[in-house]
Amino acid sequence: MDSLTSLLAGFETALTPLNLLWALVGVTLGTLVGVLPGIGPALTVALLLPVTAKLPPVSAFIMFAGIYYGGMFGGSTTSILLNTPGESASIITALEGNKMAKKGRAAAALATAAIGSFIAGTIGTLLLTFAAPAIADIAVQITPSAKFALIMVAFVTISATFGGSPLRGLLSLALGLAVGLVGTDLQSGQARFTLGRPELLDGIDFITVVIGLFAIGETLYVASRLRKGKSNVIKLEGGATMSKEDWRRSWGPWLRGTALGFPFGAIPAGGAEIPTFLSYTLEKRLSKHPEEFGNGAIEGVAGPEAANNASAAGVLVPLLTLGLPTSATAAILLAAFQQYGLQPGPLLFLTNGDLVWGLIASLYIGNVMLLALNLPLAPVWAKLLLIPRPFLYAGILVFSTVGVYSLNNSVFDLGLLALFGVIGYGMRRFDFPVTPAIIGVVLGPTAEAQFRTALQQSNGDFSIFVTQPFTAFLMLCALAALAVPQILKFRARRAS
């Protein structure tokens, strides 16, 4: 009952005219960036962080949540009509959805993606509503050594599951941790990794790092591969609609995809990629029409899209209750909280309950708005795919530069932006995942603080990380996440 009472209070906050306006702005922007290829919610939230610094925190996070959910909704349009998944979680949608579109069934593919996203997002938000307070009550009792071990689990699992190589993921994480340590040590007062530059004494601004790695890196990568010629966008006449047969074949995949997506989003296990592939495999096995898979099976769109959006709600559980991001967008949202002087975690529900519950309530409202935007206006969003990429990425480059300069009016920040842009391009070029680096930057200082606090409590005794049962269990989980996949690969090679 406490959750329901708090949720009703959250609706009072979210339903004010100003916050409804920001929710609409968020879902519209989110759908827009989801439709445009190569631009995701993580990049959009990062670009808007400097702009929203003067907004009230509740309004800013309602808009960010709308962008997050809207990006998940809009990504299906690009995958289905252009056969270009904006992110790895949409690969399966492109595989089956584009085949449906080529057969003249684009409207049905877009409709099952939108309705499945709405159902999964709503169920996921319901689970978030009741799971988050319970987890927050437990999280209050977690010791600093266990919090450090929990962050280690997040570091290892995210690095090992993003991208094709665990080694590349760990190297990306190391880069992020190194960047996060730049600045003045708060305990000793010593300068670290500043290279004698006074501009680095306060550390490197997170927004500069994110925009450099994401926006500038992506722009350089696209420019290096841009070829003349028009994209083959499948035309869509009328809104997104489904037949009775489509409904009959979609409702089961929607529910099963939701059941897979939410728990995978809530644990640090690589975000939405794994549940979307699992959902596709499950639907292929359960389908009465297995011959259609690979040729435009509607179940192959409905299930993965539901898993994708349910995982988005699941990601908010560890973010709000433990302060642990399990995706790039969640890491940027964590940085946004810190920008407002807030630290996500169990105490956030006590100290800023109006913000948390207003944010959760806005997710229900945003889901309804997104359904209204995506079904009848699908042809409008489809036309955005015709925007020439040079114009699109030139605009991103200008907006990124202006946003970073406006933070401190510093030319030095622009130099850092260019440096991280080149690094971001190199990471894309050589298939290094960016997400572990982002999470390393934002969580690195927190991990260091928890590590030092644990050692202070034990008078410098490192055995505290193996003698406390819960901490030892988490450290073993981190080691297992590194070792088990390699052992399995070694055994598979020997067997072959």
Automatic annotation (TrEMBL):
The chain crosses the membrane at residues 20-49, 61-82, 106-136, 148-167, 203-223, 315-337, 357-378, 390-407, 462-484. InterPro entries: DUF112_TM (IPR002823). It comes from the Bacteria. Residues 20-439 form the DUF112 domain. Keywords: Membrane, Transmembrane, Transmembrane helix. This is Tricarboxylate transport membrane protein TctA. It comes from Deinococcus marmoris. The lineage of its organism: Bacteria, Thermotogati, Deinococcota, Deinococci, Deinococcales.
